[in-house]
Amino acid sequence: NVLLAWDMRNLFAKLAPADELDHILENVCPVSWHTTLDGGATYSDAIAQRVALYPQYAALIEAYDPRWQETISGPIHGCVALLEELRAAGLPTYAITNFPAEKFDETCALYPFLQGFEGVVVSGREHMIKPDPAIFELFLERYELAAQDCVFIDDSRANIATAAAL
Length: 166
Fold this sequence. Notes:
Blueprint: E1 4-6, H1 8-15, H2 21-28, H3 31-38, H4 43-53, H5 58-62, E2 72-75, H6 77-88, E3 94-97, H7 101-110, E4 119-122, H8 123-126, H9 133-142, H10 157-165
Parallel strand pairs: 3-4
Antiparallel strand pairs: 1-2
């Protein structure tokens, strides 16, 4: 939700009856479940676990993998414009993203502005997620950067607090 507007509701509102949508998002497929994908779980494992818990919602849960791109409603234009301005000014840009490993490359292909970073740390590939300081430290080490020389932009106060502490 910095460069792309993401919300599970975008997909599940198409698949579930309106009177069940909140129950599904709070219990069957909550954000905490999606966060396991951001942390490196595979879709096949995560989906199998949820189907075992909620077999009556199997078709809905199983749709999450092939239809995941429908959780994205598009770019956040102001942030993308800022990114493009930074690049046009010759400043190097990097990304630390909480993102499922299995979906990152296909999403980059759909949104070319995601392809121009000098470096990217994807949580699902690293099996760690923001705001864990370890993912920030990995980023700094991998790209040989000093924290005090970086500007961090995020939509999460917890992520910003961790970056500021570094």
